[in-house]
Amino acid sequence: MINKIILASKSGVRKKILEENKIKCIVEPSNVDEDSVKESLLKEKATPEIISKNLAELKANKVSQKRNGDLVLGADSVVDLNGRIISKPNNRKEALKILVDLNGQTHNLISSVCISKNGSMIWNYTDKASLTMKQMRKDELEVYLAKVSDEALYAYNVYQIEGEGRSLFSKIEGDEDTIMGLPIKKIKKYLDNYK
């Protein structure tokens, strides 16, 4: 079994999940311009699953080209609201607008992971969870946002399912690791069998 991996992401949550599962990781962010890639893929009518997978692969491959022989893990999560991709907010005003859009709605959160070696993908996995947000008043959403740190807000598509964000939802279907951006059980299974 492999017990060390390069994580092509600056996500503290992803790093923590790996470490909690006894997988040592070296963080080396890919610095891929996600917005321009998403925009290009959307013009080609790509599905949210394809967008998520392509971004995870792009991140892993980019770092993998510089880390010869190492396994590099890239990951990406996409929020799909009725076919519309919801991107991470850049400020609290955008965060509130996203919560208003999700309010009372069911959306899908798609997480993809990719492992690359020597600049090429050798394994990938995509999973989807479904989340139904409670119908809330705007002032309740503002109170929620006031409790969330900037770091958490900009890293987790507005809600932290492992923290305050759980209170926003009436129904959650799917793997919580997928919702947090790293379907760890599938990653471990792959690494356990890696030769």
Give a concise summary.
With 195 residues, the protein is of the alpha/beta class. It has helices at residues 12-20, 34-43, 48-64, 92-102, 138-147, 150-155, 176-179, 184-193, and strands at 4-7, 24-27, 71-81, 84-86, 106-117, 120-133, 169-173.
Describe the structure in your own words:
The chain has helices at residues 12-20, 34-43, 48-64, 92-102, 138-147, 150-155, 176-179, 184-193, and strands at residues 4-7, 24-27, 71-81, 84-86, 106-117, 120-133, 169-173. It is of the alpha/beta class and 195 residues long. It has a single domain (4-193), classed as Maf protein (Alpha-Beta Complex). Strands 1, 2, 3, 4, 5, 6 and 7 form a seven-stranded mixed β-sheet that branches. Strand 1, helix 1 and strand 2 (24-27) form a beta-alpha-beta unit. The mean pLDDT is 90.
